[in-house]
Amino acid sequence: MFKLFYGIIYLLTLLPLRVLYVFSDMIFPLVYHVVRYRRKVVRKNITNSFPTKNSDEIRKIERDFYHFFCDVFIEAMYRVNMKPDEIKRRISFKNVDLVEAIYAQDKSAFLLMAHYGNWEWVSALSLHLPTESPLYGVYKQLRNPDFDTFTYQLRLKYNMGNVEIKDLVRTLLHRSSSGKKGLYAMLGDQRPLGGKGARFVTEFMHQPTAAVVGTEVLARKFDYPVFVLTITRPRRGYYACEINLITDKPRQEEAYFISKKYFEKLQQDIETNPSLWLWSHNRWKQKISL
Questions:
Q1: What is the pTM of this model?
Q2: Which of 177, 181, 230, 250 suits a disulfide with 242, CB 3.0-4.6 Å?
Q3: What gap in Å lies between CA 210 and CA 107, rounded to an integer?
Q4: What is the distance between the alpha carbons of residues 229 and 120, in angstroms, rounded to a whole number?
Q5: At what angle do helices 145-156 and 2-12 cross, to 10 degrees?
Q6: Could you give the CA distance from residue 239 to residue 252 in angstroms, rounded to a whole number?
C-alpha cells in the first residue's frame, strides 16, 4: 500500500507546482465540505482565539485555513522531486548571519518554530548554513514505520539532519563534547502531555495555554542561544523567513522568559495572518486556568 502511495506521489511531483495547485483547489472542497476534517475543533479554536470577530469573519478564517492546509500538503509532497535551486527560490531566510555569529563563538543554538506557514520547507535553511553545522529537525517518530521513513528521508534533503526527541539530549552532549555545532529546530506550539499539570501556563490567543518548555530547559542546561523563526507568505508557493534572537544568555533570564517571548511573537504572527497556523491541532483540549 505504501509503495503504491509513494509511486503516485513520485509521479505527481514530477509536475510543476503551479499544476499541482490545481489538485489543491480540487481537494479543498472535499476536505472542507465532505470529509469535514476536524471542523468542530477548528471552529472552536478560531472562535475562542478571536472573541471580537463575528461569525462571517470566523468562517472566512476557517475557509482560508483549509485551503492553505491543502496547499501545504501538496507542497510537502512536492519535496520528493524539488531540487535545491528551486526550494532556494521559493523560501528565503533573513538574518542567517546571526546564527553564523553564534557558530563563530563555538556554540550551537536552538531555533523555535511553530506549525505556521510551511514549516516543512524550513529544512532548506541548511542550504544557507555550513555543511558541518547544519539545521537539525527535532521530531517525534510516527507510529506507521513506512510513513516515518518517508518523512524522515524528505527531511534529510537539503543537508538537514534529523534528531528523534528521545535522542536529543544524547545528541547534544555528543556533539558538544566533540566540538560540533548545529542549529536545533524545535516546534514549540504543541500541547504538552498532561496539560493540566503543566509547570508553565500563559495566556495565548486569549486563552490560558499550557506550554512546552523543553527548549527553554535545554537552552539553560547547555547555555545555548535561542532564536525564533517568523514565516510570511508573499504569494502562493513562496515564503519569507526571518530569524530573530530571543536571548543569547539563557541562564541569565528569568524563569520562562524564552517561552513568554516565543508565544508573544507567535500570537503576533497569527493575528497578522490567521490562516497560516495549524488550527486543526486540538491545542486547548484540556481546560486550564492561569
A1: 0.94
A2: 230
A3: 30
A4: 13
A5: 30
A6: 34
